[in-house]
Design a protein that fits this description.
single chain; alpha+beta; Arc Repressor Mutant, subunit A; Dna Ligase, domain 1; 3-stranded mixed beta sheet; 5 strands; 42% helix; binds zinc ion
Length: 172
């Protein structure tokens, strides 16, 4: 992992600064959590990240992971996202351009997308209402291309079935 750790120099500097400003100290556990968070491009819950961290260091507790994620969010390195399953997911924020999400209600796949047209239409709409938007999150729920193929192949889905949101992560 020696080389990999040099990859996130800027992120680590930002985190260090935030930790110090919060009157906290840098610890090996916090560094490990940051490393693992930055190494995955997935949308992770605190529990997901805990499982990944636990594989590397079983002595790290749930609470430490949760608190560190909060610190990462405050520092602007992580951002919270919700996909309609009552869980809070975290994704990279620093150096990651704005994007929106499509969520498959069958398999839980999350597709990231960006449309300059949609963005400017949202701004126009806000203008129309004299509204000053600070941020937004556009989410579409539906069925991904693969699941549509699968359901064509089996068409066994019961009529009126409740949409299920099971977001897929690296931990399975
Ligand atoms: Zn957007
Ligand atoms: Zn799907
Ligand atoms: Zn995302």
């Amino acid at each position: 992992m020696g080389k990999k750790q040099d990859k996130f120099t800027v992120e680590k500097a930002i985190f260090d600064e935030h930790i110090q400003a919060s009157g906290l100290r840098r610890t090996g556990q916090r560094d490990l959590i940051l490393d693992i968070f930055l190494s995955t491009e997935d949308h992770l819950t605190s529990d997901d990240l805990y499982l990944l961290v636990h594989r590397k260091d079983p002595s790290v507790g749930h609470t430490t992971v949760y608190r560190t994620l909060k610190l990462l969010t405050e520092a602007g390195l992580a951002r919270e996202v919700r996909f309609g399953d009552n869980k809070t997911y975290y994704e990279h924020h620093y150096n990651h351009d704005h994007h929106d999400h499509m969520i498959c209600t069958e398999c839980g796949k999350v597709i990231e997308f960006f449309s300059a047209d949609i963005e400017s239409m949202q701004d126009e709409m806000a203008d129309k209402f004299g509204f000053k938007p600070t941020h937004h999150s556009l989410r579409m729920w539906g069925v991904c291309a693969e699941c549509q193929k699968l359901s064509l192949a089996s068409h066994t889905a019961p009529a009126g079935a409740q949409p299920r949101v099971r977001v897929k992560t690296a931990i399975n």
